[in-house]
């Protein structure tokens, strides 16, 4: 058996991918650039869809809204939500917590709404009028939730634990209401103006008063955007 050394050039050619031998120079860096471009374009599309969702939700829930352009330019509630989404994204990045807090402070100064960057906010969240809304660090809010001005989703503990409310989907919280502690608010709940909630509320209930008392409206009755204070 021959033990002669193989030609180095022939060996390198044998290991070279066929695409490169044929002149198809698709380098890994080029493929990575294309994937990055596609991912960036997908992110922009998703962001545009979410913004459109927020605007549509505001138009449906605010009878004073004249046009989509007016809502985009003048709604402090929407501006607060959009600012929070940016702050929340920063909060999740390494070294992003201080910039996130600074951004949240700027949003609070501009809109009167204070949302901690760590709070988790669902889709189509709408704050009517804005001013005076406070949402704490460990709060979690579902989709299609609407709150009025002066609402607090606050805590009752100084410990670094889950200390703020968890709010389900399609919940309406009236002006000046206080929801305090790690309480669970079910889906389709309505909380009346100036109510104080310190206990869990099951899905479909209406909570009014201090402390809040529960009622269960008839099915097929009033829509979810009507002020729940009418049940008082």
Automatic annotation (TrEMBL):
Pathway entry: Amino-acid biosynthesis; L-cysteine biosynthesis; L-cysteine from L-serine: step 1/2
UniProt keyword annotation of Transferase present: yes
Source superkingdom: Bacteria
InterPro entries assigned: Hexapep, Hexapep_transf_CS, LbH_SAT, Ser_AcTrfase_N_sf, Ser_O-AcTrfase, Serine_acetyltransferase, Trimer_LpxA-like_sf
Gene Ontology annotations for the cellular component aspect, listed alphabetically: cytoplasm
Gene Ontology BP term (one): cysteine biosynthetic process from serine
Keywords: Acyltransferase, Amino-acid biosynthesis, Cysteine biosynthesis, Repeat, Transferase
EC code: 2.3.1.30
UniProt-annotated stretches for the region Disordered: 1-34
CDD domains listed in its UniProt record: LbH_SAT
Gene3D superfamilies associated with the record: Hexapeptide repeat proteins, serine acetyltransferase, domain 1
Catalytic activity: L-serine + acetyl-CoA = O-acetyl-L-serine + CoA
SUPFAM superfamilies membership: Trimeric LpxA-like enzymes
GO MF terms held by the record: serine O-acetyltransferase activity
NCBIfam families in the record: cysE (TIGR01172), EPS_EpsC (NF041874)
Sequence similarity: Belongs to the transferase hexapeptide repeat family.
PANTHER family xref list: SERINE ACETYLTRANSFERASE (PTHR42811)
Protein name (database record): Serine acetyltransferase
Organism: Intrasporangium chromatireducens Q5-1
